[in-house]
C-alpha cells in the first residue's frame, strides 16, 4: 500500500487519541465507585430484608400483646364484679361467700399469670421494635453512603465523558487528514492488535511490540520508498517512519 508520508505520520496522532479514548473507556468502566455502589446495594437489600422480617415479628407481637391485654382485662373485670358482689353484702350464704372468696383467689392467681405473660410479650415487643429502629437507622446510613458514592461516580463519569468528547472531536479532525484506504487498514489492524494499529519505528525498534528489527528487515525498510506503508514482521502493525527511526 502507498500513502503520503504526512498521512502516515498522522496515524501516530490518531493512535495516540485512540489510546486515550480506550484509557478513558476503561477508567469509566472500572471506577471504584461502581464496586462500592454494588456492595452498598447488597447491604441495603440485606438490611431491608432483615427490617421486613423484624417488622413482621413486631406486628405479630403487637397482636399477641393485644390478646394478652384483653385476657388480663377480662380476668380483672371478672374479679371486679366478684369483689363488688362480695362488698355489697347481698351474699349471705356462708357457702356462697366461701365460693366467691375462692374464685377471687383463683382469679388473682390467674391475673398474676396473665400479667407475667403480658409483661414478657411487652419486653419481647420492645426488643423487636428496638431492632426495627436499629435496622432502619443502619439502612438510612447505608443510603447516605450510597448517595455520596453515586455523587462521586456521576462527577467522575461527567469528567471522563467531557474529556472523551473533546478527544473524539480531535480524532475526527485527524481522520480527515488520513486517506480512506490507509484509515481502513489502520482500523482493521487496530481491531486485531489490542487497540494498536500503528506504531512508530524508533531507534530500529517497533514501538508496538517493542522488538528490534533484524538486519534484513532494516535493509528492506531503508530502501523502501517514503510513501510505502510498512508493516512490522512480528506484530503486523503499521510502522511509521520518523526522524528517530535509525534507518
TrEMBL record:
Pfam families: CT398_CC, Zn_ribbon_9. Residues 14-193 form the CT398-like coiled coil hairpin domain. InterPro entries: CT398_CC_hairpin (IPR056003), Oxidative_Scav/Glycosyltrans (IPR052376), Zf-RING_7 (IPR003743). Gene3D superfamilies: 1.10.287.1490. Residues 58-88 have a biased composition (Basic and acidic residues). Residues 58-90 are annotated as: Disordered. Residues 205-239 form the C4-type zinc ribbon domain. This is C4-type zinc ribbon domain-containing protein. It comes from Motilibacter deserti.
Amino acid at each position: 500500500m502507498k500513502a503520503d508520508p504526512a498521512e502516515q505520520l498522522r496515524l501516530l496522532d490518531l493512535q495516540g487519541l485512540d489510546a486515550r479514548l480506550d484509557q478513558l473507556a476503561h477508567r469509566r468502566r472500572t471506577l471504584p465507585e461502581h464496586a462500592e455502589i454494588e456492595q452498598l446495594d447488597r447491604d441495603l437489600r440485606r438490611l431491608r430484608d432483615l427490617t421486613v422480617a423484624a417488622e413482621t415479628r413486631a406486628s405479630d407481637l403487637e397482636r399477641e400483646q393485644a390478646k394478652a391485654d384483653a385476657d388480663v382485662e377480662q380476668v380483672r373485670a371478672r374479679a371486679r364484679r366478684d369483689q363488688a358482689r362480695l362488698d355489697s353484702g347481698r351474699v349471705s350464704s356462708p357457702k356462697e361467700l366461701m365460693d366467691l372468696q375462692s374464685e377471687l383467689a383463683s382469679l388473682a392467681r390467674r391475673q398474676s399469670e396473665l400479667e407475667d405473660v403480658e409483661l414478657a410479650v411487652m419486653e419481647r415487643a420492645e426488643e423487636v421494635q428496638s431492632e426495627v429502629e436499629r435496622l432502619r437507622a443502619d439502612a438510612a446510613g447505608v443510603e447516605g453512603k450510597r448517595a455520596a458514592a453515586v455523587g462521586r461516580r456521576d462527577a467522575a463519569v461527567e469528567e471522563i465523558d467531557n474529556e472523551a468528547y473533546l478527544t473524539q472531536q480531535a480524532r475526527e479532525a485527524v481522520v480527515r487528514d488520513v486517506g480512506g484506504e490507509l484509515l481502513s487498514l489502520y482500523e482493521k489492524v487496530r481491531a486485531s492488535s489490542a487497540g494498536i494499529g500503528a506504531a512508530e519505528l524508533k531507534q530500529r525498534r517497533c514501538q508496538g511490540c517493542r522488538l528490534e528489527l533484524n538486519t534484513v528487515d532494516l535493509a528492506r525498510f531503508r530502501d523502501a520508498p517514503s510513501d510505502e506503508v510498512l508493516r512490522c514482521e512480528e506484530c503486523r502493525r503499521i510502522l511509521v517512519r520518523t526522524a528517530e527511526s535509525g534507518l
